[in-house]
Protein: TnsD family Tn7-like transposition protein
Organism: Effusibacillus consociatus
Amino acid sequence: MNERYAIPVPYPDELLYSVISRYHLRANNTTPKWSYKELFGTENIIPTIDLPSHIETFSRRSMLHGMTADDWMKDHTCYPFYAPFLPKDRANRLKQLMKGPDGSGIHALVGITASTVDRNSDLRFCSQCYEEDINQYGEPYWHRIHQLPGVWVCPVHRDVLHRITYPVSDRYGLTVLPISKKMFGSVPIVANLSGKTIDQLSDIARDIQALMKTNDMPVLYESRNIFLQRLRKQGYVTAGGRIRQQKLEEQFVICYGKELLEMLGSLPYGKDYTWLNLATRPARRAIHPLRQMLLIRFLYGSFNGFLEQSEVDDAPFGRGPWPCLNKAAEHYRTSIITDLRITRCTDTGRPVGTFTCECGFAYSRRGPDQSENDKYRRGRIKSFGPVWMDKLQVHLREGISYRSMAALLGVDTDTVIKYAKGTVTTRNLEPALFKRPRTSSKPVRSKGSKNTRVDWGKRDMELSWIVEEACRRILSDRENKPVRITIAAIGKRVGKLSLLEKQKQKLPVTTKILSDYLESTSQFQIRRVRWAAEQMAGEWPIKRWKLVKKAGLRPGYAQEVSDEIARCIGQGAVMNRIASAEVTPLWLH
């Protein structure tokens, strides 16, 4: 390294690219390659704005006290924007590529190369930040937040960002932000935006800034598991646990507007396999961070709201202790209950909490709670307990009316009469989700008896699990040729074809779950195309006719099937470029 010039100390939220540019300017090197040689030990690199490599070498040669490679990545690259939305192993692989000397496959690994979200091709700056940086630090610099996808306005000043029109360096050079506006030309990156659009873009930019400032990096790859409770609370989940995709997409587009979503490259095109569908299904591929942030804002109002509410959503009835609602007890409405059992309502799919107090009183209610007052809402009494029963006996001895006793004990008059006359014994809590079948002292009838009673509710629940498991096995089978999910196919697999065909009205849960998995012709053809592409993963180039033949498609398939074929061919091209990257020079990608 040039001994006369030390690496500049980075400013807040300054890009590593910007630090390199300032070093090059101070060192007065005639070509950027000399600066690359001094900073990275090699000149065979291309400076990258968002996800550079060679950071381990740069950290050692910069010799800034206390600045490790991890510090540079976290505070001065776009790594914190992408890593939370990747599987853990891929996020670790990304970190190693950025630290190492070969970053030629970084953008393909993250999914930027194959994404339809436009990657910023120009360096951007905020005019007000430019002036403030000169006043505070004596020079301007490139801010990291301004370069991220989805950031069109400054999150601090709400001004539309600008891009430099001249002078602009070539691919191997460095674009320095001059200290005087007379030394360069610039234009806004977009013009004629309405006030509403600027407000929306400003809110999105602030969400992204909040993500970048988060100290403990969240893990957001399994987005369905994270958002499921929130989706259920807002009515986007069926009783069978399936996402109401059409309703979700309609409300999502209404929230942002088609114009803004098209501007951000995030309008959910298609019918069954849009990015929004994939973001709310079990994770099979990474979704672009910008799109995930849009979904978070739609569900929670803001990213900070998501951080605050995610813990609450994990606890649909809030944090204990919870109040005892036994009006016969002295501790009535006092929060002393610590025993909570949560199950799922088979009719609505909503969580059901059963609260049991030490006094023996137990009650249940459906959740999730929407307000603080919901904690005092009682649904069904599961057990009255000895305290309540003793109080009932006291009132009976006092000779007061049944109606007065009902008001004092918090129940209806009929309940008081039943317990007063001894016709009902205290109910005990059932340990399982479903009611136990009643036992009978009558002899068991033979199988052929016409009077044999069938517990259709129990049979429906048991069969629904078997059917759903069979559907999931078909979808997860990547080795064998795909099988279309139909009533006949599932019925034969589980040995219950007659039941599924002739007793639909008695099996509502099973029928609903099965209907969610049934595939249309186009859906099945798309799945066959993906299976065929996976089988041909080692071939390059993938021929369209060969992929169609492997998938067993006949002429006349729908447009969405054709689009999926094109996507699979394009994805194969990306993976081939990754595999062949070993022949490229050492680049700062």
